[in-house]
Design goal:
Elements lengths: L1 H21 L20 H21 L5 E2 L17 E2 L3 E6 L23 E7 H8 L7 H6 L6 E8 L3 H4 L5 E12 L6 H22 L1 H13 L4 E6 L4 E5 L9 E4 L4 E10 L6 E6 L5 E3 L4 E7 L7 E4 L2 E4 L1 H10 L6 H7 L2 H15 L3 H14 L4 E10 L6 E12 L4 E13 L6 E13 L13 E11 L5 E13 L2 E10 L9 E11 H8 L1
Parallel strand pairs: 1-2
Antiparallel strand pairs: 3-4, 3-23, 4-5, 5-6, 6-16, 7-15, 8-14, 9-10, 9-13, 10-11, 10-12, 13-14, 16-17, 17-18, 18-19, 19-20, 20-21, 21-22, 22-23
Helix pairs in contact: 1-3, 2-6, 2-10, 6-11, 7-10
Length: 532
């Protein structure tokens, strides 16, 4: 029941932040004018803007997937799978839950070996202030422009949820209410800081230019736009501009003659571009200037032609097109002009915009060196120092104990794959049936990425974590805990943390404690992005 309630909260918070924003076409990253490059005047500029928008969207995803991002429940909840808190939370909305009840002790049976941490687990939801702002503004939280303009709001996050209680440790079996807030004071890993933007902007521009030039995106995108707005733009077996060559030259022809191509199709015409001045033999042909490409042709050799001032010329059809050149030419000369381009882009249906976006994304991938340079720069930025402060509590009704924690959190990248975290906190236990406890806590953790993510919105890396914690509270003996955790990515947005935890004693109980815990974390925006 605890897990179900947590996910209900996740949906209540997450849906306003994500779903309404998707319903607003103007916020879609691939929409051209709203994709962060609003002043394009030519089709080439539009294609460049699409490449930059694709990189911008991937950068949003890249910015939110570091090892400093805490998606699990706060450590103040003793049933969570996180022993140490990270300095930052999700940029959007996330949910965490225990999949099964906390496992009993793995130690041999006997004195001092029985786990006290039974119960039905925990479930929490975390939302950034940024996600709430995006919901109120009815804007997609992954919109690169909105994301870039609201850096500060991503420093603040809020957590709410429930956690199981046990009679021995909490003086009640009624689940507690978990709540917390975090403020990121220093954030040197933020890609949208001015200094970090400067480090990556030149590489992004070079990558976009290479993508547009080498992949020849402009003609392909023109065809997609024409087909989306004109049903007669697409035909079956049209003659191609570069797919008709001379087979037999014939004789008696003049430059500028228009020849109709026979064969299996009809309506296709070519122009005599050059002839032999001695006998009028055709040497070069090209598609008719009026764009008559016909339809239903097939690849063939020695295809007859009619018309013109000569006779006997045949052609080879070596390649075909799916675009009616005549319709396309009219579209290109009227709707892709500087005066009409913006309205043409605005009129594109959603499926055409997604097709263009997918084309650009696939074109960017092959440029391995520039792409590697960009990812290497991301890795270097991810090593930056981070520091935050947080407050969290577990409140229980009736005679149950309340737990509070005020915490300092520090993250530092030891390498591009290893992150080091330190926690220092003041802890307070409010016992309604006894004396209160207060004191300090110190914890540290090392997180290592075993795999490398393939893209900004790809699934998280496989991550191995080792942590240790010491608690020194009044009226009870010191407690020392250690854990090893494997965070397994399932799909983009779904991670499975598997934790083994050992403590020299459980709170209020003078017994060693050994457990295996299974959890699930959900990043709603990554799931939404993956489903687009």
């Amino acid at each position: 029941m605890t897990t179900f309630r947590a996910f209900v909260i996740a949906l209540l918070i997450g849906c306003p932040a994500i779903l309404p924003a998707q319903a607003a076409p103007a916020a879609a990253p691939a929409a051209g004018p709203s994709a962060g490059c609003p002043n394009f005047k030519t089709i080439d500029e539009f294609v460049y803007c699409q490449a930059m928008a694709t990189l911008g969207k991937q950068q949003v995803g890249q910015n939110g997937k570091g090892s400093d991002r805490q998606l699990q429940s706060p450590s103040t909840d003793s049933r969570a799978t996180s022993l140490v808190d990270q300095s930052s939370a999700t940029d959007f909305v996330s949910a965490a839950a225990s999949l099964i009840a906390v496992a009993p002790s793995l130690s041999p049976s006997g004195s001092g070996s029985t786990s006290s941490q039974t119960g039905s687990g925990t479930g929490t939801t975390t939302a950034s202030f940024y996600a709430l702002m995006a919901a109120f503004n009815k804007t997609s939280p992954t919109d690169p422009t909105f994301y870039k303009d609201h850096i500060f709001s991503r420093r603040i996050s809020f957590t709410i949820g429930t956690a199981a209680s046990t009679q021995a440790a909490d003086n009640t079996t009624t689940p507690s209410t978990v709540y917390g807030a975090k403020f990121l004071v220093i954030n040197r890993r933020e890609l949208y800081r001015d200094d970090n933007l400067g480090r990556i902007s030149d590489i992004q521009k070079d990558l976009s230019n290479e993508t547009v030039a080498a992949a020849q995106l402009t003609p392909k995108i023109k065809e997609i736009m024409c087909a989306a707005l004109h049903s007669d733009c697409l035909v079956n077996g049209a003659l191609s501009k570069v797919g008709v060559t001379v087979s037999s030259p014939g004789s008696g022809y003049k430059r500028g003659d228009i020849l109709e191509v026979r064969g299996t199709g009809s309506g296709g015409k070519v122009e005599v571009f050059d002839v032999d001045d001695k006998n009028g033999a055709v040497t070069i042909v090209q598609l008719s200037p009026d764009g008559s490409s016909g339809s239903k042709y097939s690849v063939a050799t020695n295809v007859e032609t009619t018309g013109g001032s000569g006779k006997g010329a045949t052609v080879n059809i070596t390649a075909l097109s799916s675009v009616d050149a005549k319709v396309f030419m009219t579209f290109d000369q009227t709707q892709l002009t500087e005066a009409n381009l913006a309205s043409t882009v605005h009129a594109l249906p959603d499926n055409a915009k997604k097709q263009i976006q997918s084309l650009v994304e696939n074109a960017i991938q092959p440029f391995s060196k520039l792409r590697t340079d960009l990812n290497n720069e991301y890795d270097q930025i991810s090593k930056g120092m981070q520091m935050s402060i947080s407050a969290a509590g577990n409140n229980r009704t009736g005679q149950g104990n309340n737990n509070y924690r005020a915490e300092f959190i520090f993250d530092y990248g030891l390498s591009t794959r290893i992150n080091w975290t330190v926690n220092g906190s003041f802890d307070y236990t409010d016992r309604k049936m006894g004396l209160d406890s207060r004191g300090g806590r110190f914890a540290t953790s090392f997180q290592g990425n075993l795999t490398s993510p393939t893209g900004g919105w790809s699934k998280s890396p496989l991550r191995l974590i080792f942590s240790g914690e010491g608690d020194w509270l009044s009226l009870q003996k010191p407690q020392y805990s250690f854990d090893a955790q494997l965070n397994v990515p399932i799909t983009p947005g779904f991670d499975l943390p598997i934790e083994y935890r050992y403590a020299n004693r459980a709170a209020q109980i003078n017994q060693a404690d050994s457990q295996v815990r299974f959890g699930l974390t959900v990043d709603l925006s990554r799931i939404t992005q993956a489903l687009k």
